[in-house]
Amino acid sequence: MTAPPSKSPWPRLAAVAAWAIAFALVEAMVVVYLRKLFGLQYGLAFTPRHFHYPRAYLSYEQAREAATMVMLLAVGYLAGRTWWQRLAYWLFAFGAWDIFYYVWLYVYLRWPSSPGTRDLLFLIPREWWAPVWQPVLAAFAFVAVAVLILAKTRRV
């Protein structure tokens, strides 16, 4: 006979964290390769003033970004038992993924050089540029809200 499932959200949160950190590495490696390939093929500089995503590859990258959002939503849905918990696990996965995405980029590229470094955040529906501190701050807020929701719904 198997033990009843735990009502505690924390083991699931740890599993979602492991998934998000690993997924962030995958996403960061995509950026590492794209920077190297685009730098070689187009001689591109990766600053807001000089860089625009090559139109020949834009639809592919937008599809990858959409798939990333689906994967983040799916892990939240699978980890949660209620809609509030699903929202919390999605927020947590999104936040942890985004934070560790920048951690991995720094590990492999020594980029960003500072929190004020501008980054191309998304290509859906168009290019979104902002300093790195903005998505990282939002990601920490996502994680904090997720933990609060899970703490309030832990008995469900």
Helical content stands at 55-70%
- Count of domain modules: 1
Q: How are the strands of the biggest sheet laid out side by side?
A: 1-2
Q: So what's the overall shape?
A: elongated
> What is the makeup of the main sheet?
2 strands, antiparallel
Let me know the number of strands. 2
Give the terminus-to-terminus CA distance: 23 Å
Give the radius of gyration: 18 Å
Residue-averaged pLDDT: 90
Q: Please indicate the percent range of residues in DSSP E strands (runs of 2 or more).
A: 5-15%
Series of H and E elements: HHHEEH
Number of helices: 4
Structural class: mainly alpha
Low-confidence stretches: none
Explain what the structure shows.
This protein is mainly alpha-helical. The protein has one domain. It has four helices and two strands. A two-stranded antiparallel sheet has the order 1-2. Strand 1 and strand 2 form a beta hairpin. Helix 1 packs across helix 3, helix 2 packs across helix 3 and helix 3 packs antiparallel against helix 4 (about 135-150). The longest helix is centred in the N-terminal third of the chain and has 33 residues, at about 10-40. The chain is elongated, with a radius of gyration of 18 Å. About 25% of the residues are buried. The mean pLDDT is about 90.
Notable features of this structure?
156 residues, mainly alpha, two-stranded antiparallel ribbon, 4 helices, 67% helix, elongated
Write the layout of secondary structure elements.
Layout: H1 10-42, H2 55-79, H3 83-109, E1 118-122, E2 128-131, H4 133-152
Antiparallel strand pairs: 1-2
Helix pairs in contact: 1-2, 1-3, 2-3, 3-4
